[in-house]
């Protein structure tokens, strides 16, 4: 049968020892040729020779028996996740930079008046 490589997201995985136990348990499943967990990303990678649907159910059952609080879901193709890359506040940052530039320019041209400089700074 053809070798398949599947990736799964392990939600709720919060300790390295749990990851090791899951990795050991999944690697002992019949048909699994290779198994690794990236603890930092919470990703389980499995190379196997069985049908994907059958293997997915067996992996999920094994993970649940080892660590009941960890949920298993197939990793989606592409770049889908719940966080943003900082572009949400881009407008606010640009407005703050422009405001700072305007105030800085105004401060440069203010005559040497102590009260005005005190108010500005």
TrEMBL record:
One of its GO terms (molecular function) is metal ion binding. The keyword Transmembrane helix applies. The chain crosses the membrane at residues 93-111. The keyword Oxidoreductase does not apply. InterPro entries: Heavy-metal-associated_CS, HMA_dom, HMA_dom_sf. Residues 4-71 form the HMA domain. This is Heavy metal translocating P-type ATPase. It comes from Clostridium perfringens. The lineage of its organism: Bacteria, Bacillati, Bacillota, Clostridia, Eubacteriales.
């Amino acid at each position: 049968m053809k070798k398949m490589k599947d990736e799964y997201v392990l939600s709720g995985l919060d300790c390295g020892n749990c990851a090791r136990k899951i990795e050991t348990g999944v690697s002992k499943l019949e048909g699994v040729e290779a198994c690794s967990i990236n603890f930092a990303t919470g990703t389980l990678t499995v190379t196997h020779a069985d049908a994907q649907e059958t293997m997915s159910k067996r992996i999920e059952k094994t993970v649940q028996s080892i660590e009941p609080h960890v949920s298993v879901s197939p990793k989606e193709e592409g770049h889908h996740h719940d966080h943003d890359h900082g572009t949400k506040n881009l407008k606010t940052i640009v407005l703050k930079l422009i405001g700072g530039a305007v105030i800085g320019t105004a401060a440069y041209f203010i005559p040497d008046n102590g009260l005005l400089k005190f108010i500005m700074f």
